[in-house]
Queue: 3 jobs
Job 1
Amino acid sequence: MPWKFSFHRRRKSPTDPTVEGPIILPPVTNKRRFRKDVPYILPADSDEIDRLDFQHLIIRAALKGNYVAPIDTPARILDVGCGTGQWSFDMCTQFPQSQVIGIDLEPGTKTLPDNFMFAQGNIMNGLPFEDNSFDFVHQRFLLTALPLNIWPQTLNDLARVTVPGGWVELIEGSEDIKPLGPAMQRMLTFLGRFAKARGLNTTGNLPRFLDSMLAQAGFEQVTMKTFEVPLGPWGGQIGDMMSTNLYNALKGMGAAIPALLGVPATDIEEILSHLRDEWEQDHATYKYYIAYAQKPEEAARNE
């Protein structure tokens, strides 16, 4: 099955009363490594590094490239929440004359290209770069890391470091799995409770508002697209890869649920054991949201 693109009208910004007040960071105890100083709900270990690299291949294949924004030849590129750095490294190869900077909590372990630089930092504390520094700013998959009430200031910061006329692109996954079977529904219920305990958005609807939030941050030429990827071998090689990727992501997050929520580990294991067969039998698909926008040229005149 070919993956499908579609455009969407802009919506109002999301609201989620569960993220009001201080962020709760309860301890997470299990065999996987989780960071306890930030709300991030995915593991931070070698298994997750492998999954992130694998996921990058899926997204690149679905997009038929590393981005969709109409950029030309950016002199400086910023990858916010760069993870393993694989997207940044691809951009280093594609734009060998460009300087690519990645920022995240921890550095990766790979050999770095000559035109790549890593900056260690927590983007919840702001980006450590000067105004109007980057021609292209890329951020993806931070729904599991940033509380909803942090998103406006984060997007304002993206706008600040983007040059007038430069572009910003956001990509996020979602809970839009169709059809939604009983095992996946149970898993999403547990994940919602997990997200709430870590101070994150619990409704899973934030990706639908990426375009609205970019517009509120002052960007223009805002465009929102979605693309669906099959879940399971029924959708060919990319479907098989996507099923493996999502299963491993859910397994990683699920590792923390028993200790954090007091749920028997056997309950999570039982759910996981049904997921891949459920996706395959239902011919399920997973939806991604991608939004890109341009910083107004007149921003330069107003500064």
Job 2
Amino acid sequence: MLEPEITVLLTEHRIEHLPIFEEIAEKHDVIILEEPYPDLINQVLEGGLDLSKYVELVYTEFSKFLEEQYKILTKLHKSGKIIYASEPYLAQLVKIYKHIERKTLHDALKQDKFLQFVHNIENIVSGKLLEYYDAVSSLDFEKAVKALLNYAKADAYRILIRDLMRASELRNIIRYYTEKGYRKILVEAGLIHVVLVKALSIYFPNKVQVINTKKLLAERCLPDADLKVLEYSHPGYTITFVYLGFLNNYNLRELAARCIIYNMLISKEEKYPTESDPCPHLREEYGILKLVSRLSFDECRKLFEKVMLKMLKGSTESDFVGF
């Protein structure tokens, strides 16, 4: 039996990462996206479904990224690459959104235990996030730190379940395509999904390699940057990895304090790279991480109180919460 060569591409939904995505995708036979509906993707690629409609159907926050990514996917598709998708947790989440719109969620949950399971997780995580919103808007820094950690712990459990579900589905997809003679498989995944990598490595021992587009982008775009800042100083990722059991011996309260400041300072809008600045998101992130990684808990508190008073005059809490 043909053995697969699996590449997990840890990346971000930022346009500046797409040239690297395209480079690596061209070297593979099958590209499995981090999207919920493979049938809809193929309809878009074949011209049977407008991309704007697809964006609407999957409730994405990264419409500009998808527009640019689908230009690349269309070329890959025409060149003979197989474009597929797998994200079973998100598929259930989209179902929940649709049932809410149709006012049929109550009956759907009674009939579908799996949907109910995902709905229960989302209720818990959403509740913790709302508590964080309330804490931030109350200007109580201690309360905000505690609420952020409670949210991060709940979100880490959601990530664990999401990754295990996806790994199980990917095992079958990869085996199917390998049996069809397609050996080189590319799996797109967000940077946070280390459990997915571990699970796939168990299913396919010695067949999984990992490529991190942020690291490659930094080497090309920010050659003088300290890569350790980008790799190890993101407070939100670090907290999540601690709760997932991959890291330990970290001061979680200090990390949470830094995470709050990071969230307040980082911009949320999608940015297009230019010739003069090919990595606007990464450049901004690096600058902010250099700042927050040096802050003590008390320095974070003082900065929080100072910035929040200004931000609350013209912003809502959702503008600076994005953990």
Job 3
Amino acid sequence: MENSARQDIEKEILKQAIEMIEGQGGYPSAGRVGVKGQDIENAIILASEKWHQGVIGVVASKLVDIYYRPTILISLSGDAGKGSARGIKAFHILEGLQECSQHLERFGGHKAAAGLSINKSHIPAFKEAFLNAATHLKHEDFIPALSLDASIHLDELNEKMVTEMDSLAPFGLGNPEPLFCSRETRVVQSQIVGSNHLRFKATQKNRVFNAIAFGFGDMHPLSDKYMDMAFTPQIEEWNGNRDLKLNVKGMKTAA
């Protein structure tokens, strides 16, 4: 599979998975709290016949980046399911699968990542058992420590840098995406999208970038405010156009 085709498939599966999650009531993003009284599950388990087995591991890692929950995605073909699982620091994903082994045909992996085979009919019972295995997780376990790679100005960003970063993929718990910090960045034109996500434009030194912050909708409006932001730059392709955008992982009012 060509790299561009693989990336298109990854984006589509990620979009579908987020829609499924938000259809179930949504989760706060990594490090964010949920709405008071909202029933938030401690893990994400999703399955679909539309998903390509070869890329669901990468998408599972991206969902962990967004929601910071143990995540399992299952690709279905008839009654056969092949899954990829990703853990978080406070949850050993292989041990979690071992607690649910009676519902699985095969599984294997390590603390951060695992693979599994399951019959489609066993998925509901497996999901219940896996969620039970994750009941010990507490609110603070869903707050990842942000490890910054560098502090930069937005005018230093370019497509060459992001392309070189992408050569380090695949990213996951043992190989996180590079994370940058930009201080005193002016935010303009913020808006809420989806259930609770914040889309805005970030500007610094005459450079303007589109940005998305999953689960940060409660910070709206932010127009004409200065923020310190932790983000991963990404190139998004749509209808032949390329857009260097910011995937914001954390932000606070600039001092």
